[in-house]
């Protein structure tokens, strides 16, 4: 069973705590402004209460922090602490992007009016192994990269290991803080204060305990289901092995009665080679 952290062990890297910290609009706004080098007057949280009930185990498909600014741009900010062996982070970002578009279309928007959207993954590892603090991807023409698709879709990956190459001091300090280093500078220190404030709230602690119990329950059910399937598989394999031994015993008996190999093959559906091998093993051929 995968170990679940205690509430006191949580850091900014953990989805549950990250979501609550980003509920602070000033901090969330400032982080987006710094990442994108833009100005935002205000943010509106999209279905936050529904979104907060999500991914203690890091495996849910719901959005961590989903906000819209005063100009209609939407942002999904995700904390990513592990990269799968298949290195599927890019396709994961594609799926999150499709979730955002699906949500917007469900609200009745025609596709030509889809909001500009940004999927931002904050990674505790270097997702592309180039040492960049931020990797930004937009669609452009393969034959001429000056030709932009202009679908207003952007995916960004922050690399907590790339703080040394970050030009903006606040971004550098933020990446170091995500990487587990001490909070330095006004923004990182303010984030750290918010982390401690959130962790001081009894309501948040109780919520985490409820989620932890639910995750443990699901883990137990999954383990029990896996054990049951394992037992069933073992019984099935045992039955198959028993049936095979019985068929081979019958073949040996028929060989002893001098029944032709071709006839035995038609009856048992064993090949001629298999029957001959059995006969040799028992000294009958």
Q: What is the share of helical residues?
A: 40-55%
State the strand order across the main sheet: 1-2-3-4-6-5
Fraction in beta strands: 5-15%
Order of helices and strands: HHEHEEHEEEHHHHH
Q: What's the count of strands?
A: 6
Distance between the termini: 54 Å
Instruction: Tell me the major beta sheet.
Output: 6 strands, mixed
Stretches where pLDDT is under 50 for at least 5 consecutive residues are 49-60
Q: What gyration radius follows from the Cα positions, in whole Å?
A: 29 Å
Rounded average pLDDT: 85
Summed up, the helix count is 9
**Derived structural class:** alpha/beta
Looking at the structure, what is the overall shape? elongated
Draw up the topology in text.
Elements: H1 15-22, H2 25-36, E1 43-45, H3 48-51, E2 65-69, E3 74-80, H4 89-106, E4 117-123, E5 134-137, E6 153-159, H5 169-178, H6 185-199, H7 202-256, H8 261-268, H9 272-281
Parallel strand pairs: 3-4, 4-6
Antiparallel strand pairs: 1-2, 2-3, 5-6
Report on this structure:
By secondary structure, the chain is α/β, with parallel strands linked by helices. Helix content is 49%, strand content 12%. The protein has nine helices and six strands; from the N terminus they run ααβαββαβββααααα. A six-stranded mixed beta sheet has the order 1-2-3-4-6-5, with helices on both faces. Strand 3, helix 4 and strand 4 form a beta-alpha-beta unit. Helix 1 packs across helix 6 and helix 5 packs parallel to helix 6. The radius of gyration is 29 Å and the shape is elongated. It starts with 14 loop residues before the first helix and ends with a helix. About 4% of the residues have low confidence.
């Amino acid at each position: 069973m995968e170990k679940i952290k205690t509430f006191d062990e949580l850091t900014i890297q953990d989805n549950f705590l990250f979501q609550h910290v980003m509920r602070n609009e000033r901090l969330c706004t400032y982080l987006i402004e710094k990442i994108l080098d833009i100005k935002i007057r205000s943010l509106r949280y999209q279905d936050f209460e529904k979104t907060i009930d999500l991914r203690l185990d890091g495996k849910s498909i719901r959005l961590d922090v989903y906000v819209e600014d005063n100009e209609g741009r939407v942002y999904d900010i995700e904390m990513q602490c592990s990269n799968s062996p298949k290195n599927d982070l890019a396709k994961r970002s594609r799926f999150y992007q499709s979730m955002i578009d699906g949500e917007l279309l469900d609200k009745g928007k025609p596709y030509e009016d889809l909001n500009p959207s940004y999927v931002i993954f904050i990674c505790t590892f270097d997702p592309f192994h180039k040492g960049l603090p931020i990797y930004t991807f937009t669609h452009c023409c393969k034959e001429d990269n000056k030709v932009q698709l202009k679908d207003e879709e952007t995916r960004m990956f922050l690399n907590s290991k790339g703080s040394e190459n970050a030009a903006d001091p606040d971004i550098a300090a933020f990446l170091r803080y995500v990487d587990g280093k001490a909070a330095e500078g006004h923004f990182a220190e303010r984030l750290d204060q918010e982390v401690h404030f959130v962790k001081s709230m009894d309501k948040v602690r109780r919520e985490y305990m409820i989620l932890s119990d639910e995750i443990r329950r699901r883990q137990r059910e999954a383990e029990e289901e896996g054990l049951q399937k394992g037992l069933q598989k073992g019984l099935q394999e045992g039955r198959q092995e028993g049936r095979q031994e019985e068929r081979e015993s019958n073949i040996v008996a028929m060989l002893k009665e001098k029944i032709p190999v071709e006839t035995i093959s038609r009856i048992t559906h064993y090949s001629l080679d298999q029957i001959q091998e059995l006969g040799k093993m028992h000294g009958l051929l």
